Amino acid sequence: MRVAERKEGGWESNAWVMKAINLYFGIAEMRTMEVGPFEYHDKIPTKKNLAAAGVRVVPPGTVRYGAFVEPGVVVMPGYVNIGAHVGSGTMVDTWATVGSGAQIGRNVHLAGGVGIGGVLEPPGAMPVVIEDGAFVGSRVIVTEGVRVEEGAVLGAGVVLTSSTQIIDVTGPEEAVYRGRVPARSVVVAGTRTKEFPSGHYQLQTALIIGQRRESTDQKTSLNDALREFGVSV
């Protein structure tokens, strides 16, 4: 059972799974673990039998016990925490982290230094969800239960929290989203001016500047999106 599952009309969290993980932390004891030349001192061991699971983990990448990674996942020297779910064909690139309970779809690319936030408390809180085929660029941060829908592209340095304004600037009038990146959107980091008592300042936003075309396959579509809209990765 996953921390969150897709239901008709959206995603729903499973509070009892989060409660079970928190109870496990309470009863597990600290111990020293040796993995080749590396030594760890923790309550939760690393995942084993990776070859049988069809998962590639490059040293010193770590998949923690209690995470689920499907066959075909590649973890460079990154980190997948307990309760996370990572779908087949996904790349967790160097120094990318997948937090507790985060749900990563199939054929996703988490580029170098990506930070996917985790959540286990309060039980029932929505985790971050990255749906199938999304591309998350270098040093992107996604937290607080944000959902990145299927096939979306996040350019380098985008920061998404539940309160971040995600502004579609492709039409005659802007459309503002919070907590959700619509499917196949191409998103870059932007700013918006806000007035404070001491003056006007720029606050970070995210800008939807286009859509990936469905007329091409995934790889070509991604390359076209980066070339056409000038998205840094």
Give an overview of the whole structure.
The protein is mainly beta. The chain has a domain at about 1-130: 3 Solenoid (UDP N-Acetylglucosamine Acyltransferase, domain 1). Helix content is about 10%, strand content about 35%. The chain has three helices and 26 strands. The protein has helices at about 15-25, 50-55, 220-230; strands at about 5, 10-15, 30-35, 40, 55, 60-65, 70, 75, 80, 85, 90, 95-100, 105, 110, 115, 130, 135, 140, 145-150, 155, 160, 165-170, 175, 180, 185-195, 200-210. The strands form five sheets. A ten-stranded mixed beta sheet has the order 5-8-11-14-17-20-25-26-22-23, with helices on one face. A six-stranded parallel beta sheet has the order 6-9-12-15-18-21, with no helix packed on it. A six-stranded parallel beta sheet has the order 7-10-13-16-19-24, with no helix packed on it. A hairpin with a 6-residue loop joins strand 22 and strand 23. The longest helix has 13 residues, at about 15-25. The chain is globular and about 60 Å long. The two termini are about 35 Å apart.
